[in-house]
Write a structure and sequence with these properties.
Layout lengths: L3 H17 L15 E5 L8 H5 L30 H8 L18 E3 L10 H5 L13 H15 L3 H9 L1 E5 L4 H9 L4 H5 L2 H17 L4 E5 L8 H6 L15 H24 L4 E5 L1 H10 L16 E2 L18 E2 L16 H12 L4 E2 L13
Parallel strand pairs: 1-2, 1-3, 3-4, 4-5
Antiparallel strand pairs: 5-8, 6-7
Length: 381
């Protein structure tokens, strides 16, 4: 188990990287209005791609209530309602992003290529096709990037037209990579084995960012990983009988130390990326520290302080999470007020938490550097 001193040292190092890399950014904050958003990622961002490609009978829970209950209808989003990407689009004065796999939808203001369950690295490269924890989707970042390129080529006649479009757009590369680690951890890989994945995951993310920058993207946001030791799913599956395994917030130290290592390596790579693309605005979205800020200020932000580590929708237990009874199946129940909870189903967050996170990141101090200009008044409520 990692020591408290080591954990806080690494978090401090991550913070230094956040703030040390924020100067000298080419066009940061001066790019004008965003005409479109293009997003790559996983379930944190997927607005409906997984359910569009899933065979009949698969992933039925996210197709039905209680998923989408706060919106009033299910959308394929892994939440009770909206996601951070929805609030970002809204604050930009843009419509919500339609999933790329949707038919007869408008993509005039961007497209969402994210797929729930997606990994950064190709599953075949990481799992060799033999692991019992093989991802349930093969829509890795590489495939999403291919979708993105094909979409741009079919939507715009020339490479010059693509570049022009991307000059006035925002490209989100992630959050992605979390599932690479999730599948490994839940496949009973040791911490040492999972840590060996970090360089490959980070390289895959950065290589994807390079490709969209080479296509002409002028504004790119690359999010980091959450403090996964605070997530009900991990708190349940990796619970420890040792009080020293937990920090003052009730989170598992070793898992958060691991997430901080990923984020530190990712930020160093982003700093190198900025050097290679000095005319582009490239920002790191700090999901790690913004989540801690949300956790610490939960009461002030309207959340139930006694439920910050519990899932709203689940099957009981200390954290209301049971991996054998996921939200939506028989034997699970849903809390009366999802807006009082941070976690929706033990893995994903509630609409209220995503909204708060979006405000903390895109209108606060956790986007480094701030490369976005919002229409006056947007995102202030």
């Amino acid at each position: 188990m990692a020591s408290s001193a080591a954990f806080f040292f690494l978090v401090a190092a991550a913070l230094l990287l956040h703030f040390g890399c924020c100067h000298g950014q080419g066009n940061a904050g001066n790019g004008g209005a965003v005409a479109a958003i293009y997003s790559l990622g996983d379930s944190i961002t997927d607005t409906g791609n997984l359910i569009k490609e899933a065979p009949p009978g698969a992933f039925e829970t996210i197709k039905h209530f209680p998923y989408g209950v706060t919106l009033g209808y299910p959308t394929g989003r892994c939440s009770d309602g909206l996601l951070m990407i929805d609030y970002l689009a809204q604050d930009m004065g843009l419509p919500f992003l339609n999933p790329y796999l949707a038919k007869n939808r408008s993509f005039d203001h961007g497209a969402n290529f994210a797929v729930a369950g997606a990994t950064a690295m190709d599953p075949a490269d990481q799992f060799n096709g033999s692991s019992s924890s093989m991802p349930f989707t093969v829509n890795s970042l590489k495939l999403q990037l291919r979708w993105f390129k094909n979409f741009m080529k079919s939507s715009f006649a020339t490479d010059q037209a693509i570049r022009k479009r991307l000059q006035s757009s925002l490209v989100m590369v992630g959050e992605i990579g979390g599932n690479d680690y999730n599948f490994a951890f839940f496949g009973n890989k040791s911490m040492g084995e999972v840590e060996k994945l970090v360089p490959g995951v980070v390289k895959t993310i950065i290589d994807a960012a390079k490709e969209v920058l080479d296509m002409g993207a002028s504004r790119v946001i690359i999010p980091g990983n959450f403090p996964i030791g605070c997530i009900p799913g991990y708190l349940t599956s990796m619970a420890s009988s040792e009080p020293s395994a937990y920090d003052s917030m009730g989170c598992l130290k070793e898992l958060n130390l691991f997430a901080a290592k990923h984020n530190t390596k990712l930020q160093r790579a982003i700093a190198d990326l900025r050097t290679s693309y000095p005319d582009a605005s490239i920002a790191y979205a700090d999901y790690f520290n913004s989540f801690f800020s949300l956790l610490k200020g939960a009461s002030d932000l309207g959340f139930d302080a006694n439920s910050t580590h519990k899932a709203c929708c689940g099957a009981g237990g200390k954290y209301n999470y049971d991996e054998m009874k996921m939200c939506g199946v028989e034997g699970t129940t849903t809390c009366e007020d999802p807006s009082a909870y941070l976690s929706w189903d033990g893995i994903h967050m509630t609409q209220a938490a995503y909204k708060a996170m979006s405000r903390l990141i895109y209108h606060g101090k956790y986007l480094q550097p701030q490369i976005l200009n919002f229409p006056e008044g947007n995102g202030q409520t």
